[in-house]
Please model this.
Amino acid sequence: MKTPWDTFFEEKMVKMFTEKKSILDIGGGLRILREKNNRFDAKRAWLIPYAEKIAYKVMDPVSDYHPDVVGDIHAIPFKDDSQEAIICMAVLEHVENPFIAMKEMYRVLQPGGYCFIYVPFLYYYHPEIGYYADYWRFTQDALKMLSKDFKTVEIQPVRGAIGTWIRLSPLGRFAALQWLATAADKITGKINSKQVSGFNVFLIK
Model:
């Protein structure tokens, strides 16, 4: 069963990788390159052929995982209006000042540039000791405020209320139960709840 958030993610990724010639992945959140990440996500391997056709670069604040660019999202080391597209997935909850981070992404994006963000809302504590802390969670209202300078803002919730509850519990490790929870969310209308795991966001400058 394809979920609305999976469909949103896939459509926006294809759009970015086919309509832009370069993408800066801040934090390497796509996790599609084993040699440039602390983790690899095999479920996103379908994006690798797309990435091979463009200038896809990973930026990270430390050199440990061999990023293309070592840089801090609070002071992105690129000129104004220089980047065609930015991906920033599961990063903003780990940075000290998401307001500055958002302004920096806006600054370096070209007019008409694309930005894809994922942030958590009702989600468990997940720092990585020695690499990053875990500071923030984001409501839909917060995202609208943070994105107010962008010309276009599309926000897609990830999971409904029941799916979020299951995901936070020990039962969340079982894919079948997560599938049933999504079905229950659709049947009960909880798929439209504000109590969600997080948000996928697509922005155009």
Notes: The mean pLDDT is 94. The CA atoms of residues 67 and 165 lie 35 Å apart.
